[in-house]
């Protein structure tokens, strides 16, 4: 079935370090891909998305490129801040089917000064 | 801004109680969703609704039911709460149509069943 696999956390980094969180997917058809972020005590909010192969989503210094050949959508940021500490979820949705989201397990990021 | 609100941030209930979780959105979205979030499992879809009075089972509907009598409100019901339903519950809403796949989430309700 359709699924999303993302790297296990927690990921612990120092401020200004480079961040990569890996995400791969399995899907029939042509999914749209998303990264959602959950800050402590809050619900999820959309960070970025890409709807077709080779699209790059970007927001707040984060980027992810939709790679159909490797079925991946890795999240990157060149220089993390303490305020980026959160849980990051990779997700996909398939065209049709009421746009249900399928989530990965989430990766907790902790950034220290 | 889209706003999705949930009736409670924290709830404590006893085993066997009937529990109602309410979700309201203010953007006239057709689709609404209920998820539960558990450590290491991500978010799992319980039920969703694509229109008033319409509902579809998600991946883990057992022990839950839903109600959508008005477009803006989607209720999750635990008919007889059990300890394995202790979890964080998240509601989301979304427009229909291609290119509008973003789901907007409420802040969550953390439910403890004793």
From the structure above, extract its key features.
heterodimer; A: six-stranded mixed beta sheet; four-stranded antiparallel beta sheet; 50% strand; globular; B: 114 residues; mainly beta; seven-stranded mixed beta sheet
Describe the secondary structure blueprint for this structure.
The complex is a heterodimer of chains A (113) and B (114).
Chain A: E1 3-6, E2 11-14, E3 19-21, E4 23-26, E5 32-38, E6 44-50, E7 56-59, E8 62-65, E9 75-77, E10 86-93, E11 101-103, E12 107-112
Chain B: E1 4-6, E2 10-13, E3 19-25, E4 31-38, E5 42-49, E6 56-57, E7 64-70, E8 73-78, E9 87-94, E10 104-105, E11 109-113
Parallel strand pairs in B: 2-11
Antiparallel strand pairs in B: 1-3, 3-8, 4-5, 4-9, 5-6, 7-8, 9-10, 9-11
In short:
The complex is a heterodimer of chains A (113) and B (114). Chain A is mainly beta.
Oligomeric state: heterodimer
Secondary structure tally: strands of chain B: 11
Work out the number of β strands of chain A: 12
Could you tell me the strand content of chain B as a percent range? Answer: over 45%
Number of helices of chain A: 0
Contiguous uncertain segments of 5+ residues of chain B = none
CA-based gyration radius of chain A: 14 Å
Low-confidence stretches of chain A: none
Largest sheet of chain B: 7 strands, mixed
Question: Pairing-aware structural class of the strands and helices of chain B?
Answer: mainly beta
Distance between the termini of chain A: 41 Å
């Amino acid at each position: 079935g359709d699924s999303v696999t993302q790297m296990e956390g927690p990921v612990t980094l120092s401020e200004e370090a480079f961040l990569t969180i890996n995400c791969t997917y399995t899907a029939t058809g042509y999914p749209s891909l998303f990264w959602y972020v959950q800050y402590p005590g809050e619900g999820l909010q959309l960070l970025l998305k890409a709807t077709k192969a080779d699209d790059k989503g970007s927001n707040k210094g984060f980027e992810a490129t939709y790679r159909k050949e490797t079925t991946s959508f890795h999240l990157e940021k060149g220089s993390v801040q303490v305020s980026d500490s959160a849980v990051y979820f990779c997700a996909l949705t398939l065209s049709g089917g009421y746009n249900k989201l399928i989530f990965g397990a989430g990766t907790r990021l902790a950034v220290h000064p | 801004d889209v706003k999705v609100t949930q009736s409670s941030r924290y709830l404590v209930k006893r085993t066997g109680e009937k529990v109602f979780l309410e979700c309201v959105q203010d953007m006239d979205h057709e689709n609404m969703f209920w998820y539960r979030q558990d450590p290491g499992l991500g978010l799992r879809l319980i039920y969703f609704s694509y229109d008033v009075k319409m509902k579809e089972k998600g991946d883990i509907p057992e022990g839950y039911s839903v109600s959508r009598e008005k477009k803006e409100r989607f209720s999750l019901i635990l008919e007889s709460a059990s300890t394995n339903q202790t979890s964080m519950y998240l509601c989301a809403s979304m427009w229909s149509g291609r290119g509008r796949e973003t789901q907007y989430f409420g802040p969550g309700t953390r439910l403890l069943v004793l």
